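Table S4 entry, FAD dependent oxidoreductase domain-containing protein.
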Amino acid sequence: MKNFQVAIIGGGVIGSAIAWELSKYKVDVVVFEMESDVASGASKANSGVIHSGINSATGSLKARFCVEGNSMFQTLADELGFQLKWVGKWVIAKNQHEIKELQRLQKVGNANNVPYLEITDESEVEKKEPNVSCYKALWVPTAGIIPPYEFTIALAENAAENNVKFILETKVIGLKKQRNNFEILIDKGNFQAQIVVMQLVLIVEK
């Protein structure tokens, strides 16, 4: 029975990202994925938006990780070779009454350390988006977009190059807690791991 230090169940973007991070260290890691490739579940249908953090509650972990994660993506894209476009985002106010919401978002964004936020008038918007009609707009340049499938593949491939083992087309059907580890029951045999990380979103069977 093969023994790993860490077993990750689920080869989506989160599971692959954890595997990639652990591949930097001397840790024996395996990823079990029931489909024929990683990113075959919820990850492939993700919008791929790199959020800026302008609407996350100040002081929350979501705000902290959103802004920190946003700042990491250019380095990740350069290192792993996936597409990344900093397209930015306009938040539109159609009339004077809606300006308060732009100001609120800008205030929250500033408190969360989101850089380069600017409220502009329609003439500035028209320079970049001539078909948009508005009264004012909040420009958020740190909003971006990536292909989620390509990103997940890049994480998984790099992790595999660094000796993480990916076992595809394999369904985990049970776990048994033992004294010092877990026995992982799969449809092709059993494995053992000291730590099990479950990253399942859509499919969790009893």
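The radius of gyration is 21 Å.
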